């Protein structure tokens, strides 16, 4: 009775959860390389005094970025991060967090 729609729904269900709520790691990587790599180094591994930001759960990175975006200080050098987080949209934050969780 529902052959084609059911099959389509099945494949959709298989492909979406991998990235969590539809976040797009490739888009996240593209933003990362454009705006974040200069401080946080290749794949978020950290550089000089800038913290490593890869390998953290999506929820952790998302919370941090949203707090910076709201202008909430979190460490001694938050001013730099607040400036960078301000223009980010919710979607960009989700994508960045999805990319950074498994960035290599
Ligand atoms: C101008 C340099 C600079 C740029 C560019 C930058 N950051 Fe940061 N980032 C920092 C500094 C410095 C800190 C530590 C801030 C503090 O003391 O609170 C930080 C902290 C963070 C943290 C929190 C780390 C932790 O575990 O506490 C995350 C997540 C983060 N940055 C993500 C990003 C993302 C994503 C981008 C690109 C949109 C980005 N940063 C761009 C300098 C930068």
Could you describe the 3D structure shown?
With 104 residues, the protein is mainly α. It has a single domain, classed as Cytochrome Bc1 Complex, Chain D, domain 2, CATH 1.10.760. The chain contains five helices and no strands. Helix 3 (58-69) crosses helix 4 (78-85). The longest helix is centred in the N-terminal third of the chain and has 16 residues, at 25-40. It starts with a helix and ends with a helix. The model has no long low-confidence stretch (mean pLDDT 88). The structure holds heme C.
How is the secondary structure organized here?
Blueprint: H1 3-15, H2 25-40, H3 58-69, H4 78-85, H5 90-101
Helix pairs in contact: 2-5, 3-4, 3-5
The structure holds heme C (HEC).
């Amino acid at each position: 009775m529902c052959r084609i729609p059911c099959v389509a729904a099945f494949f959709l269900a298989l492909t979406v959860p991998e990235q969590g709520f539809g976040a797009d790691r490739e888009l996240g990587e593209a933003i990362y390389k454009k705006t974040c790599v200069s401080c946080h180094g290749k794949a978020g591994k950290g550089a000089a005094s800038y913290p490593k930001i890869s390998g953290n759960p999506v929820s952790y990175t998302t919370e941090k970025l949203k707090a910076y975006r709201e202008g909430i200080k979190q460490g001694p050098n938050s001013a730099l991060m607040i400036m960078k987080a301000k223009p980010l949209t919710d979607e960009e934050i989700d994508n960045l967090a999805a990319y950074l969780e498994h960035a290599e």
